[in-house]
Amino acid sequence: MLFLLLFVVADSPILITEVMSNVRGPETSCGDRNEFVEIYNESTDAIDLAAYRIWDFDDAPPDEICPWTNDSILLKYPAVRMNSTLIQPNTYALILDSEYCSPDTSGGYWQPYVIPDSTLILTTDETTICDGLTTTDPLILYSTVDFCTTSFGTPYDSLDNFPNDPGDGVSWERVDVSQPDEISNWHPSIDTSGCTPGRENSVSGAYDLAIDSQSIYFAPAVATVGENVQIEVFVRNNGLSGTSDYQLVVFDDFNADSSLDDDELITERTGDWVNALDSVALIWTYEHPAQGSHSLGFKIEYPPDVDLSNNLAFKTLRVIGEIGELALSPRIFTPDDDGVNDRLQIDYRLPEAGGRLTVSIFDMRGIRVHDICRNEGWTLEQGTFYWDGRSSQGDMPIGMYIVYLEYRYSDKVTKAKKTAVLAR
């Protein structure tokens, strides 16, 4: 359709930033009068919205954007702007149902929103916004003059089942105004009231990076004197916006006070990009740690973080003089893709390189269920394998498993085995 084409080809300084379609209360009475659409002017110029139209892609024609003229709104919101369609730079406007101030309170929830001072109040030329918003309605706001468009609900993709119902009295909020109308850029409001009309969205800047000891891996798990240790740290983004503007600080907590002192810093690692509700692995090599037990602290430094309680974790690195052929970590692993102990780490050390190596997994009946490598020529004296709890047949059941190592070299054979537990 024409409107869809305009959306695809035209950017707009005017953005739909919040939509309330499922209001609190019964479907009748306040069922539509409390619906609203929040828009934001991200430009440096004032823009007249008189030439703009809003449409929900239903059969009814698009609505005109009109100034709010009902003075009764000033009884509760004495400092809002009305009688105008001019939205100032970097400010919000609210498109309200024309009956928002209706004196009928039979449905409850009368004028339920907290609207900030100076918010521009708008309405449409109909008695409802479009023909009444539903939880499945996408929206488009467009100018009939310069063809600028903004949308909500990804109207260009009718098969993505978005929008949908965010919950009774909960709005959809745009996460990042600099990002397009995509499912990942909308989230139900996390404000205690269920919405944030006329002000910054509750989901914007909701950053929460996290780290825990079970998402820190050492390779090898137990080191010998003189060797390097590869450290892999998974940083989890529990927030709603991606970021890379953080640092990972690693320190050796010599005095066991759980804080970083000047003489304890080992390294500072710049963060890699981590998407919302995702995790990223930061990898660093600790060169030649000294013999002994090291309580390593891992701290995320990120000033916008809203929850600092999960930004610090500790894990002990042991450095000893000698180790056997095989070491497992953790002994109980849970391959459920939650980012915590999802794989079994298998460290090996061989008497010399150039032999043939077999590393296999057996169940407690002595049946071989998986080969990590089998009778392969091997050129590394030490290294690390990982097992994700799967075989060629798929996920293995929970239980105890034996990791068996066999190495043939120079007419000699070295064998080792250790047990691990696969849990869910």
* CA-based shape: elongated
Category from helices, strands and their pairing = mainly beta
Largest sheet: 10 strands, mixed
CATH-derived architecture of the largest domain:
Sandwich
Strand order of the largest sheet: 10-9-4-5-8-7-2-1-11-12
- Taking Cα atoms only, what radius of gyration do you get, to the nearest Å? 30 Å
Chain oligomer state: single chain
User: What is the mean predicted local confidence, pLDDT?
Assistant: 91
CATH class of the largest domain: Mainly Beta
In the CATH hierarchy, the third-tier topology of the largest domain is known as: Immunoglobulin-like
Q: Into which percentage range does the β-strand content fall?
A: 35-45%
Provide a descriptive summary of the structure in words:
By secondary structure, the chain is an all-beta fold. It is built from two helices and 31 strands. It has helices at 2-9, 30-33, and strands at 14-20, 36-41, 47-48, 52-55, 63-67, 86-87, 92-96, 120-124, 139-143, 149-152, 172-174, 186-188, 209-210, 216-219, 222-224, 229-237, 247-252, 265-270, 278-286, 292-301, 312-320, 326-329, 332-333, 344-349, 356-363, 368-377, 382-387, 390-391, 394-395, 399-409, 412-422. It has a ten-stranded mixed beta sheet, with helices on one face. It has a five-stranded mixed beta sheet with strand order 15-21-20-17-18, with no helix packed on it. A five-stranded mixed beta sheet has the order 23-31-30-25-26, with no helix packed on it. The protein starts with a helix and ends with a strand.
